[in-house]
Automatic annotation (TrEMBL):
Intracellular or extracellular location(s): Cytoplasm
Principal subcellular localisation of the protein: cytoplasm
Family of the protein in this entry: Belongs to the RRF family.
Keywords: Cytoplasm, Protein biosynthesis
Function: Responsible for the release of ribosomes from messenger RNA at the termination of protein biosynthesis. May increase the efficiency of translation by recycling ribosomes from one round of translation to another.
UniProt cross-references to NCBIfam families, sorted A to Z: frr
Highest taxon above the source species: Bacteria
Name listed for the protein in its UniProt record: Ribosome-recycling factor
InterPro entries recorded: Ribosome_recyc_fac, Ribosome_recyc_fac_dom, RRF_sf
Amino acid sequence: MSDEIEIDIDDLERRMKGAIESLRHEFASLRTGRASASMVEPIMVDAYGSPTPINQVGTVNVPEPRLVTINIWDKALVSKAEKAIRESGLGINPQLNGTIIMLPIPELNEERRRDLTRVAAQYAEHARVAVRNVRRDGMDQIKKAKSSGMSEDDQKFWEGAVQELTDKVIASVDQALEAKQAEIMQV
């Protein structure tokens, strides 16, 4: 292999792993009938005149599999936090107990579970497309390097390395999808 022409495989790997992290974040936002602290992360509360994430105005806990509690630190913000939860589109009716807001998570019906598995599959497909785009960028780098004097053996080596990385990352996307779909369908 020539020393002056190399492909930045670490950058490609970092970008592919970024697609997986994005997928995991999207999966965490899917409501599976099981309580999760991440389901309230996007909720913004109008605190002291500016929108503030709900986890910065109170402590978010998951004491039971079907219950999320938020212990609001400032009593003046309890009603604003409750209003933000109602308007968030989560479809959960908050219950107040002093400064604690309780969010009971309802059971999902079979049709809603199937819909969520389809949404999860769409998220996974978006992640696969992102990984393939990174692969294409890597292959373009290899083509440019070949036109700059990279040997055919080096070209084959780097193409194999990029393809191997792509296959590995897509396999982990598929694993994450299977795990999420199993979690959604679990009654």
